[in-house]
Amino acid sequence: MAEPRLKSQRFREERQDVWLSLEKIVGKAERRGLASLTEDELMALPVQYRATLSALSVARATSLDAALIAFLETLSARAYFFVYGARNEPWREVAEFFATGWPSAVRAMWRETLVMALLMVLGAGVAAWLVGSDPDWFYGFVDPALASGRDPTASREALRATLYDGGEQGGLSAFAAFLFTHNAQVALMAFALGFAFGVPTVVLVLSNGAMLGAMLAVFFGQGLGFEFSGWLAIHGVTELGAVILAGAAGLRIGLAAAFPGDRARLDAAAEAGRLAGRMMIGVIVMLFFAGLLEGFGRQLIVDDWARWGVAGATLVVWALYFYGPRPASWRGR
What we know:
Number of helices: 13
Helix content: over 70%
Strand content: under 5%
Distance between the termini: 48 Å
Radius of gyration: 27 Å
Largest sheet: none
Number of strands: 0
Number of domains: 2
Protein backbone atom coordinates (compact mmCIF):
# COMPACT_ATOMS: atom_id res chain seq x y z
CA MET A 1 0.00 0.00 0.00
CA ALA A 2 2.96 2.34 0.58
CA GLU A 3 3.92 2.30 -3.08
CA PRO A 4 0.52 3.55 -4.45
CA ARG A 5 0.44 6.27 -1.79
CA LEU A 6 3.97 7.32 -2.75
CA LYS A 7 3.02 7.49 -6.43
CA SER A 8 -0.09 9.51 -5.60
CA GLN A 9 1.91 11.95 -3.48
CA ARG A 10 4.58 12.37 -6.15
CA PHE A 11 1.89 12.83 -8.82
CA ARG A 12 0.20 15.52 -6.75
CA GLU A 13 3.42 17.38 -5.94
CA GLU A 14 4.44 17.55 -9.59
CA ARG A 15 1.13 19.05 -10.74
CA GLN A 16 -0.60 20.69 -7.81
CA ASP A 17 0.67 24.19 -8.65
CA VAL A 18 -1.37 24.10 -11.84
CA TRP A 19 -4.45 22.79 -10.02
CA LEU A 20 -4.24 25.40 -7.29
CA SER A 21 -3.78 28.16 -9.85
CA LEU A 22 -6.81 26.94 -11.80
CA GLU A 23 -8.86 26.69 -8.60
CA LYS A 24 -7.95 30.29 -7.74
CA ILE A 25 -8.95 31.55 -11.21
CA VAL A 26 -12.21 29.61 -11.22
CA GLY A 27 -13.04 30.79 -7.71
CA LYS A 28 -12.51 34.41 -8.74
CA ALA A 29 -14.66 33.94 -11.84
CA GLU A 30 -17.43 32.32 -9.77
CA ARG A 31 -17.48 35.20 -7.29
CA ARG A 32 -17.11 38.15 -9.67
CA GLY A 33 -17.67 36.88 -13.21
CA LEU A 34 -15.33 36.37 -16.15
CA ALA A 35 -14.92 40.12 -16.54
CA SER A 36 -13.00 40.20 -13.26
CA LEU A 37 -10.18 38.06 -14.69
CA THR A 38 -7.01 39.69 -15.93
CA GLU A 39 -5.70 39.01 -19.42
CA ASP A 40 -3.08 36.61 -18.03
CA GLU A 41 -5.75 34.69 -16.11
CA LEU A 42 -7.99 34.46 -19.17
CA MET A 43 -5.07 33.10 -21.20
CA ALA A 44 -4.14 30.60 -18.46
CA LEU A 45 -7.68 29.31 -17.90
CA PRO A 46 -8.02 26.96 -20.93
CA VAL A 47 -4.39 25.81 -20.71
CA GLN A 48 -4.66 24.86 -17.05
CA TYR A 49 -8.08 23.31 -17.65
CA ARG A 50 -6.64 20.95 -20.28
CA ALA A 51 -3.69 20.12 -18.03
CA THR A 52 -6.11 19.26 -15.20
CA LEU A 53 -8.19 17.05 -17.50
CA SER A 54 -5.02 15.23 -18.54
CA ALA A 55 -4.06 14.71 -14.91
CA LEU A 56 -7.55 13.41 -14.16
CA SER A 57 -7.27 10.90 -17.00
CA VAL A 58 -3.92 9.64 -15.68
CA ALA A 59 -5.26 9.47 -12.12
CA ARG A 60 -8.20 7.35 -13.21
CA ALA A 61 -6.09 5.06 -15.40
CA THR A 62 -3.53 4.39 -12.67
CA SER A 63 -6.12 4.08 -9.89
CA LEU A 64 -4.68 6.80 -7.69
CA ASP A 65 -6.43 7.68 -4.43
CA ALA A 66 -10.14 8.44 -4.63
CA ALA A 67 -9.83 11.81 -2.87
CA LEU A 68 -7.47 13.13 -5.53
CA ILE A 69 -9.70 11.87 -8.34
CA ALA A 70 -12.76 13.49 -6.72
CA PHE A 71 -10.90 16.80 -6.35
CA LEU A 72 -9.83 16.78 -9.99
CA GLU A 73 -13.32 15.86 -11.20
CA THR A 74 -14.89 18.71 -9.23
CA LEU A 75 -12.29 21.23 -10.35
CA SER A 76 -12.63 20.16 -14.00
CA ALA A 77 -16.42 20.46 -13.85
CA ARG A 78 -16.21 23.96 -12.34
CA ALA A 79 -13.66 25.10 -14.94
CA TYR A 80 -15.63 23.57 -17.83
CA PHE A 81 -18.44 26.08 -17.36
CA PHE A 82 -16.10 29.03 -17.88
CA VAL A 83 -14.15 27.47 -20.75
CA TYR A 84 -17.06 26.02 -22.73
CA GLY A 85 -20.15 27.32 -20.94
CA ALA A 86 -22.84 29.42 -22.55
CA ARG A 87 -21.69 32.88 -23.51
CA ASN A 88 -23.57 36.05 -22.69
CA GLU A 89 -26.11 37.32 -25.15
CA PRO A 90 -24.83 40.20 -27.31
CA TRP A 91 -26.72 42.82 -25.34
CA ARG A 92 -25.19 41.50 -22.12
CA GLU A 93 -21.72 41.72 -23.65
CA VAL A 94 -22.38 45.33 -24.60
CA ALA A 95 -23.73 46.15 -21.14
CA GLU A 96 -20.74 44.49 -19.50
CA PHE A 97 -18.35 46.46 -21.70
CA PHE A 98 -19.82 49.79 -20.67
CA ALA A 99 -20.27 48.75 -17.05
CA THR A 100 -16.79 47.36 -16.46
CA GLY A 101 -14.68 46.78 -19.58
CA TRP A 102 -14.19 50.33 -20.78
CA PRO A 103 -13.79 52.02 -17.37
CA SER A 104 -11.29 49.38 -16.23
CA ALA A 105 -9.19 49.95 -19.38
CA VAL A 106 -9.16 53.70 -18.74
CA ARG A 107 -8.16 53.22 -15.09
CA ALA A 108 -5.39 50.84 -16.11
CA MET A 109 -3.90 53.58 -18.31
CA TRP A 110 -4.11 56.45 -15.84
CA ARG A 111 -0.38 57.19 -16.14
CA GLU A 112 -0.49 57.44 -19.93
CA THR A 113 -3.68 59.50 -19.69
CA LEU A 114 -2.02 61.93 -17.28
CA VAL A 115 1.00 62.27 -19.59
CA MET A 116 -1.24 63.02 -22.59
CA ALA A 117 -3.27 65.59 -20.64
CA LEU A 118 -0.11 67.34 -19.49
CA LEU A 119 1.28 67.37 -23.03
CA MET A 120 -1.90 68.95 -24.34
CA VAL A 121 -1.79 71.61 -21.60
CA LEU A 122 1.90 72.20 -22.36
CA GLY A 123 1.21 72.64 -26.07
CA ALA A 124 -1.66 75.04 -25.35
CA GLY A 125 0.40 77.08 -22.90
CA VAL A 126 3.41 77.46 -25.18
CA ALA A 127 1.30 78.36 -28.21
CA ALA A 128 -0.77 80.90 -26.25
CA TRP A 129 2.41 82.58 -25.00
CA LEU A 130 3.95 82.68 -28.49
CA VAL A 131 0.81 84.07 -30.15
CA GLY A 132 0.42 86.60 -27.36
CA SER A 133 3.96 87.86 -27.99
CA ASP A 134 3.75 87.74 -31.79
CA PRO A 135 0.36 87.18 -33.54
CA ASP A 136 2.10 85.79 -36.64
CA TRP A 137 2.75 82.60 -34.68
CA PHE A 138 -0.98 81.91 -34.93
CA TYR A 139 -0.71 80.81 -38.55
CA GLY A 140 1.97 78.30 -37.64
CA PHE A 141 -0.43 76.50 -35.31
CA VAL A 142 -3.88 76.87 -36.91
CA ASP A 143 -4.92 76.12 -40.47
CA PRO A 144 -6.67 79.24 -41.87
CA ALA A 145 -9.48 77.05 -43.22
CA LEU A 146 -10.10 75.68 -39.73
CA ALA A 147 -9.91 79.14 -38.16
CA SER A 148 -12.66 80.39 -40.50
CA GLY A 149 -11.88 84.04 -39.83
CA ARG A 150 -11.20 83.60 -36.13
CA ASP A 151 -7.64 84.92 -36.32
CA PRO A 152 -5.62 87.86 -34.95
CA THR A 153 -6.89 90.16 -37.72
CA ALA A 154 -10.56 89.72 -36.73
CA SER A 155 -12.31 92.46 -34.78
CA ARG A 156 -13.91 91.90 -31.40
CA GLU A 157 -17.38 92.19 -32.94
CA ALA A 158 -16.57 89.61 -35.61
CA LEU A 159 -15.16 87.17 -33.08
CA ARG A 160 -18.14 87.63 -30.79
CA ALA A 161 -20.57 87.00 -33.63
CA THR A 162 -19.04 83.58 -34.28
CA LEU A 163 -19.84 82.55 -30.69
CA TYR A 164 -23.57 83.21 -30.85
CA ASP A 165 -24.61 82.51 -34.46
CA GLY A 166 -26.91 79.52 -34.16
CA GLY A 167 -27.43 78.85 -37.85
CA GLU A 168 -29.99 76.53 -39.35
CA GLN A 169 -30.98 73.12 -38.04
CA GLY A 170 -30.13 71.35 -41.31
CA GLY A 171 -26.74 72.96 -41.38
CA LEU A 172 -26.10 71.95 -37.82
CA SER A 173 -26.77 68.31 -38.65
CA ALA A 174 -24.23 68.35 -41.49
CA PHE A 175 -21.77 70.23 -39.30
CA ALA A 176 -22.08 67.63 -36.55
CA ALA A 177 -21.41 64.82 -39.03
CA PHE A 178 -18.35 66.60 -40.40
CA LEU A 179 -16.90 67.30 -36.96
CA PHE A 180 -17.49 63.75 -35.79
CA THR A 181 -15.58 62.43 -38.81
CA HIS A 182 -12.75 64.92 -38.30
CA ASN A 183 -12.37 64.26 -34.58
CA ALA A 184 -12.55 60.50 -35.08
CA GLN A 185 -9.68 60.76 -37.58
CA VAL A 186 -7.56 62.76 -35.14
CA ALA A 187 -8.17 60.28 -32.32
CA LEU A 188 -7.55 57.25 -34.52
CA MET A 189 -4.28 58.76 -35.76
CA ALA A 190 -3.13 59.36 -32.18
CA PHE A 191 -3.86 55.70 -31.48
CA ALA A 192 -2.58 54.19 -34.73
CA LEU A 193 0.71 56.09 -34.70
CA GLY A 194 1.55 54.75 -31.27
CA PHE A 195 3.33 51.74 -32.79
CA ALA A 196 6.27 54.04 -33.70
CA PHE A 197 7.36 54.02 -30.06
CA GLY A 198 4.71 56.66 -29.26
CA VAL A 199 6.69 59.57 -30.74
CA PRO A 200 4.13 60.58 -33.44
CA THR A 201 1.36 60.32 -30.84
CA VAL A 202 3.17 62.74 -28.56
CA VAL A 203 3.73 65.19 -31.43
CA LEU A 204 0.09 64.98 -32.50
CA VAL A 205 -1.25 65.68 -29.00
CA LEU A 206 1.18 68.57 -28.58
CA SER A 207 0.08 70.06 -31.90
CA ASN A 208 -3.59 69.74 -30.97
CA GLY A 209 -2.88 71.51 -27.71
CA ALA A 210 -0.96 74.21 -29.57
CA MET A 211 -3.89 74.82 -31.90
CA LEU A 212 -6.18 75.19 -28.89
CA GLY A 213 -3.76 77.56 -27.19
CA ALA A 214 -3.46 79.74 -30.29
CA MET A 215 -7.23 80.11 -30.54
CA LEU A 216 -7.48 80.93 -26.85
CA ALA A 217 -4.83 83.63 -27.23
CA VAL A 218 -6.84 85.34 -30.00
CA PHE A 219 -10.09 85.47 -28.02
CA PHE A 220 -8.49 86.36 -24.70
CA GLY A 221 -6.66 89.15 -26.51
CA GLN A 222 -10.04 90.63 -27.44
CA GLY A 223 -11.53 90.22 -23.97
CA LEU A 224 -13.68 87.23 -25.01
CA GLY A 225 -11.83 84.53 -23.09
CA PHE A 226 -14.75 83.55 -20.85
CA GLU A 227 -17.21 83.48 -23.74
CA PHE A 228 -14.93 81.52 -26.06
CA SER A 229 -13.96 79.03 -23.35
CA GLY A 230 -17.64 78.28 -22.68
CA TRP A 231 -18.32 78.00 -26.41
CA LEU A 232 -15.47 75.51 -26.65
CA ALA A 233 -15.97 73.64 -23.37
CA ILE A 234 -19.55 72.59 -24.08
CA HIS A 235 -18.16 69.98 -26.45
CA GLY A 236 -14.43 70.22 -25.73
CA VAL A 237 -14.58 68.34 -22.44
CA THR A 238 -15.78 65.24 -24.27
CA GLU A 239 -13.90 65.79 -27.52
CA LEU A 240 -10.51 66.60 -26.01
CA GLY A 241 -11.02 63.87 -23.43
CA ALA A 242 -11.47 61.38 -26.26
CA VAL A 243 -8.31 62.59 -27.99
CA ILE A 244 -6.36 62.34 -24.72
CA LEU A 245 -7.58 58.77 -24.13
CA ALA A 246 -6.76 57.81 -27.72
CA GLY A 247 -3.29 59.26 -27.25
CA ALA A 248 -2.92 57.31 -24.01
CA ALA A 249 -3.83 54.10 -25.84
CA GLY A 250 -1.27 54.84 -28.54
CA LEU A 251 1.36 55.67 -25.94
CA ARG A 252 0.73 52.37 -24.13
CA ILE A 253 1.46 50.47 -27.33
CA GLY A 254 4.51 52.62 -28.08
CA LEU A 255 6.00 52.13 -24.63
CA ALA A 256 5.39 48.38 -24.80
CA ALA A 257 7.18 48.24 -28.16
CA ALA A 258 10.06 50.40 -26.93
CA PHE A 259 10.47 48.67 -23.55
CA PRO A 260 9.19 45.09 -23.90
CA GLY A 261 11.05 43.82 -20.85
CA ASP A 262 11.65 40.07 -20.90
CA ARG A 263 9.00 39.53 -23.59
CA ALA A 264 9.37 39.60 -27.35
CA ARG A 265 8.74 43.09 -28.71
CA LEU A 266 5.83 41.93 -30.85
CA ASP A 267 4.23 40.03 -27.97
CA ALA A 268 4.52 43.04 -25.66
CA ALA A 269 2.96 45.34 -28.25
CA ALA A 270 0.17 42.84 -28.96
CA GLU A 271 -0.67 42.54 -25.27
CA ALA A 272 -0.79 46.32 -24.90
CA GLY A 273 -2.85 46.53 -28.07
CA ARG A 274 -5.61 44.35 -26.63
CA LEU A 275 -6.12 46.73 -23.72
CA ALA A 276 -5.71 49.81 -25.92
CA GLY A 277 -8.21 48.44 -28.41
CA ARG A 278 -10.81 48.14 -25.68
CA MET A 279 -10.17 51.76 -24.79
CA MET A 280 -10.55 52.87 -28.41
CA ILE A 281 -14.00 51.33 -28.74
CA GLY A 282 -15.13 53.63 -25.96
CA VAL A 283 -13.29 56.59 -27.49
CA ILE A 284 -15.43 56.29 -30.62
CA VAL A 285 -18.52 56.51 -28.41
CA MET A 286 -17.13 59.66 -26.78
CA LEU A 287 -16.47 61.19 -30.18
CA PHE A 288 -20.03 60.48 -31.22
CA PHE A 289 -21.36 62.42 -28.23
CA ALA A 290 -18.78 65.16 -28.82
CA GLY A 291 -20.05 65.48 -32.39
CA LEU A 292 -23.62 65.90 -31.17
CA LEU A 293 -22.61 68.48 -28.58
CA GLU A 294 -20.49 70.37 -31.05
CA GLY A 295 -22.98 70.32 -33.88
CA PHE A 296 -26.15 70.91 -31.87
CA GLY A 297 -25.69 71.82 -28.23
CA ARG A 298 -22.94 74.36 -28.73
CA GLN A 299 -24.90 76.18 -31.43
CA LEU A 300 -28.35 75.99 -29.84
CA ILE A 301 -27.26 76.95 -26.32
CA VAL A 302 -26.14 80.57 -26.55
CA ASP A 303 -26.10 81.54 -22.88
CA ASP A 304 -22.53 81.53 -21.53
CA TRP A 305 -23.41 80.18 -18.10
CA ALA A 306 -25.58 77.46 -19.61
CA ARG A 307 -22.65 76.41 -21.79
CA TRP A 308 -20.39 76.26 -18.78
CA GLY A 309 -23.04 74.31 -16.93
CA VAL A 310 -23.22 71.66 -19.66
CA ALA A 311 -19.41 71.49 -19.79
CA GLY A 312 -19.17 71.07 -16.02
CA ALA A 313 -21.84 68.38 -16.02
CA THR A 314 -20.08 66.37 -18.73
CA LEU A 315 -16.78 66.67 -16.86
CA VAL A 316 -18.34 65.32 -13.64
CA VAL A 317 -20.11 62.50 -15.49
CA TRP A 318 -16.98 61.31 -17.30
CA ALA A 319 -14.80 61.62 -14.18
CA LEU A 320 -17.22 59.59 -12.05
CA TYR A 321 -17.76 57.05 -14.79
CA PHE A 322 -14.07 56.35 -15.28
CA TYR A 323 -12.56 56.95 -11.84
CA GLY A 324 -15.43 57.07 -9.36
CA PRO A 325 -16.14 54.38 -6.73
CA ARG A 326 -17.44 51.14 -8.20
CA PRO A 327 -20.25 48.98 -6.76
CA ALA A 328 -18.95 46.08 -4.68
CA SER A 329 -20.05 43.57 -7.32
CA TRP A 330 -17.85 45.33 -9.92
CA ARG A 331 -14.65 45.60 -7.93
CA GLY A 332 -11.65 43.94 -9.52
CA ARG A 333 -13.21 43.96 -12.95
